[in-house]
Amino acid sequence: MPHIFAALVNLNHPGHYVHWGFIQMSVANLLVIGLMLLVFVLALVLPFPHGRAAARERAARPEASAVDERPEAGTAP
Amino acid sequence: MTSTPPTTTRTEAVLATERPTWTGRFRSRAERSFPPEKLLPDRQPAYVSSWIYVFGALTLGAFGVVLLSGAVLAVEGPAWWHVSRVGLYVNSLHLWSTELFFFFMVIHLWGKFFMAAWRGRRRATWITGVLAFLMSIATAFTGYLSQQNFSSEWISTSAKDGINATGAGAFWNVLDFGQMLLWHVLLLPLVVGAVIAFHVLLVRRRGVVPPFAAASTVVSEPYETALLPSAAPAGPAHDDFGPEVPHNEEAP
Amino acid sequence: MNHKRFKPDRDVVEWDGPTVRYDLFKEVTVCFVIVLILTAGFAAIFGSPDDPAITLKSWSNADPVDFVQTAITELDGTSGTAGYGPPYNSTSGVSQTIGPVSLESLAGVGVPINTANDFVIDPLLTLPNAPAVDAAIASFQSAAPAKQAQWEAAFEKVAATATFNGHLQLKPGPYGPVGVVMRQLLAMARSGALDGALTSGGQLYSTNSTKPLLFIADGSYLGNVATAYNLSGAPPQWGMMNETGNYPGQAWLWLYTFWYRVPPMSNSSSGDAEVWAIMMLLTLLLMLVPFIPGLRSIPRLTRVYRLIWRRHYREG
Question: Are residues B175 and B199 in the same domain?
Fold first, then answer.
């Protein structure tokens, strides 16, 4: 049982670093930052499935689309 | 149909003449600001259809795992994870859930920035979000200081100069394991939890920020009234979400 | 009714268009489970680091000369801790300042440390059956301050060329009882007794590791080990962000550590205070973005939102 708690990948070896001008960063940190940027971009561009359900609901309704229904903001008391 | 019991009318009459209680006043204010369908909604605006919206919930989920793994470490005490393989695994859970917590939080921040999510009386939501970020960093910092190993030794002796320079070092001693552990386990998580709760309540109150729209001349009220409970009854003009779309789930 | 000019970076036309089905509890639950699975996976694959701390024992055995060279500065008051000023002691003129203000000095000596007594004399006095040490300390303490300074300076001079081959090899010199004091402190450290004496202060329970940490940090050994791990804050390393081995560190400290490399902070004696002041200012700016014209216009001008709400703009 204890063996499943030992790490499969040993990260305790001396760290790898990248040097770029006066910037020095660990490969690990660079990976994390790179991954964050990648996930952010993916979150923006990947299609979101929910929209299809909304489109189905709108199509099922006899009234016109949302734009015509929306009253002018700020005119209500 | 039975008639209204006379006590109801009498209670109302009594209430009308009595001084309001703290409890009653708080309850009324809470009911006005957070009617149940606003506090626990099961509808959201149709424009919420992007994966970027999931990152707030992912941050919350990560916070939950951080708290859970931290609780297990607390149950066993600070020496456990140094001597037990299970303890080391739980420590790893605590470390990686913290990494994920910041990972999702920062992406959530980027998303909210590019949506200009402070618009429309949502500035307090933005401010509490940044505050949660800062308090989380402080909490993680005290966590690193509580490790009782080379990492905490180096971090504490290095960080002391910066902290001392602010004057805080006179009463907040990063070299004092006992003090830092208590701040990490009790005080700071309470603060972070409270700020997050306030932040989420603000999101529920104002709703998710709408997309950028065309300019018009008459818009939202001045910001000075933004944090006061809405005096007007909740209605289409003041609701953050629009009138209900007929909910034809059973329709084909 | 207020008629205020609409500012697109501050104001909004509230939505009263269509809504869709949404399950708040389900979303948070699913997210919690996703993070739990990811966490369990990362923890199993990568684990976490736990390198043991350097102790006075491990330090004095690995580098006894560095230990002795540090110990004499603790006795004569020239070590980093001894000359630190607030919060450890009231050495004047060393506090960091921002212009005329020194927050450090204003806060005062909240963690009082007298390195000569706390790190050297008092621990040695706890040794039982050590008449030579007691005599040396008594001789030292009863001498005039000028004599003490003479002995200390003489010892510091020979310590600079000291070697170790199982025993500390020192050139002879007029360092009087200081020689005995230093040798005994080294022996006490190498045995592990100094760690105990400094942490517990004679009590059974202790949770305050301030004294041994400050003593260790005054030496070069700790910094050398950290530099080998790429954890140093001194250029060219960006140590503040890093973790031992190949573990990710604290990437969010990138901007904080960046300023330490930029003049004038990089060679200022008040560098820490200055960097903190800059970061507090930037943090305030981040918090107040909604109020700052120009800054709050960036989202609208960069048009990233066209991606986020593309379905809305297409169908609306």
Answer: yes
Question: ipTM score of the complex?
Answer: 0.92
What confidence score (pLDDT) does residue A61 get? 57
Closest CA to A17 of A37, A36, A31, A7: A31
How many Å separate Cα A13 from the centre of its chain?
31
> How far is the C-alpha of C206 from the C-alpha of C197, rounded, in Å?
11
Please provide the average confidence, as pLDDT, over all residues in chain C.
Answer: 91
The CA-based angle B83-B84-B85, given to 5 degrees, is 130
The distance of A29 to chain C (nearest Cα, Å) reads: 5
Whose CA is closest to C104, among C93, C116, C117?
Answer: C93
Q: By the 8 A CB rule, do B88 and C47 touch?
A: yes
pLDDT per residue as tens digits for the range C25-75: 999 999 999 999 999 999 999 999 999 999 999 999 999 999 999 999 999
Structure tokens belonging to residue C272? 């820490």
Match 């998303």 to its residue by tokens: B111
Query: What distance in Å separates the CA atoms of residue C124 and residue C149, rounded to the nearest whole number?
Result: 20
Whether residues B151 and B110 share a domain: the answer is: no
The residue count for chain A: 77
The domain segmentation of chain A, as residue ranges, is 2-66
Judge whether B173 is closer than 8 Å to chain C, CB to CB: yes
- Same domain as B193, residue B134: yes
Residue C251's nearest CA partner among C240, C259, C243, C241 is C241
Tell me which residue range forms the domain holding B81.
Answer: 50-115
The predicted model scores a pTM of 0.85
Distance between CA C79 and CA C94 in Å, rounded? Answer: 13
> Going by C-beta distance under 8 Å and a sequence separation of 6 or more, which residues neighbour residue B234?
B32, B35, B38
Q: Do B142 and B199 belong together in one domain? A: yes
Helix, strand or coil for residue B203? helix
Please give the structure tokens belonging to residue C184.
């005994």
Answer whether B251 sits within 8 Å of A60, measured CB to CB: yes
Instruction: Please choose, from the candidates B67, B65, B94, B64, the residue with its C-alpha nearest in 3D space to the C-alpha of residue B81.
Output: B94
Separation of alpha carbons B166 and B170, rounded Å = 9
From B76, B93, B115, the end of a domain falls on: B115
Residue B141 maps to a domain: yes
Q: Which two tokens stand for residue A70?
A: 């929306």
- State the total domains in chain B: 2
Q: At what angle do helices B123-145 and C271-287 cross, to 10 degrees?
A: 150
C280 has a pLDDT exceeding 60:
yes
Q: Which chain B residue lies closest to C223 (C-alpha atoms)?
A: B154
Tokens of B232: 């007007």
- The residue of B44, B48, B50 whose CB has the most chain A CBs within 10 angstroms, and thus the best one to mutate to test that interface, is B50
Low-confidence ranges of chain B (pLDDT < 50): 214-252
Q: How far is CA B78 from CA B75, B88, C55, in A?
A: 9, 11, 19
Which site among A9, A44, A63, A65 would you substitute to test the B interface, given the most B Cβ atoms closer than 10 Å to its Cβ? A44
B218–A contact, CB cutoff 8 A: yes
Q: Average of pLDDT values for A47-64?
A: 61
Do C9 and C300 meet the contact criterion of CB atoms below 8 Å apart? yes
